[in-house]
Give the backbone structure.
Amino acid sequence: MKTIAIIDDDIYIGNMVEEVLRHSGYEVIRAYSGTEAVLLLNQKRPDLVLLDLMLPGMTGEKVLEVINHIPVIVVSAKVETSDKVSLLRSGAADYITKPFDIDELLARIAVQFRKASEYQTSSVLTVGDMRLDTASHALSIDGTDVKLTKTEYAILKLLMQNPGQVMAKSVILDSISADTPDCMEGSLKVHISNLRKKLQAVCGADYIEAVWGIGFRLRTE
């Protein structure tokens, strides 16, 4: 089931959209300020974000800057073409103006999920010199094959699908639980440590960075 984050301080609009989304089969998480949104997105990774711009604490434009590899539909009362162009260039996937038709919003959400599905049909993930074939589970670094355990593969696949994005430990565990139910919080660090050693042994670079108190991210430099 897809999860959508509603980031909007307008409780009435947020409640209305949440009700429609849940009725349409989506899970919903919410934040009511920019600061709260950043904290929420560090703890949970939604499949799509509905982002208002005029938020207390931290503007929607600033929140957009810290969101990576998640489609963002800006939902705002700002109607100027220059605002829309600027946000689309800053990484927003789409823009819908308040007040909006709920059927149009649902259609735009469906379009984003269809695009994501088409993108994920590619069986090869590439970050730097690393090439991960998700069909065969084969990893190579600059042409050298690297053998991975089932858990190491699941972790690396998730990180390569979200390069540069800090992934909270809880998000990693939740995302890989279907493939590796035996991986718990206590053993996650061990699996990642072993994975880092394997990658370093081949390329000499430390691809995986530990972000203290949050989780891990895959370096893209």
About this structure: The first strand starts at residue 3 and ends at 7. DSSP finds eight helices and twelve strands in the chain.
